[in-house]
Design goal:
Helix content is about 35%, strand content about 35%. It is of the alpha+beta class. A hairpin with a 3-residue loop joins strand 2 and strand 3 (about 55-60). The protein is globular, with a radius of gyration of 14 Å.
Length: about 110
């Protein structure tokens, strides 16, 4: 599903990953983090896709909201597990969305 975002500007956090072969608790934790993010002030939506490379984009109202999410204790614990178990490599990019447009077939 494509996230419904507000009028620009807003922010996108792009989380790109290469996974290890360890799956121990990953799916459950990813779901918990998505559910928890939805409760955070400033959260706008999320989109995710994975194959050999995983890409998750979350949308936020402000940089302050992103910092609050980063410092959430449960998210901090999940990030530690990710480095220890699930990710071979990851890259995080924070972008300001200044313009957007789209198409929907009727």
């Amino acid at each position: 599903m494509i996230a419904k975002t507000p009028e620009t500007p807003y922010y996108a956090v792009i989380f790109t990953t290469l996974r290890t072969s360890i799956d121990k608790g990953y799916i459950e934790t990813a779901k918990q983090m998505e559910d928890l993010a939805k409760l955070q002030e400033g959260y706008l939506g999320i989109e995710s896709a994975s194959d050999k490379v995983g890409i998750t984009v979350s949308y936020w109202q402000s940089l302050e909201a992103i910092v609050k999410w980063k410092t959430n204790i449960e998210h901090t614990v999940a990030r530690s597990k990710g480095r220890e178990l699930w990710y071979q490599q990851y890259q995080l990019r924070i972008c300001k969305v200044e313009r957007e447009y789209g198409f929907t077939k009727k």
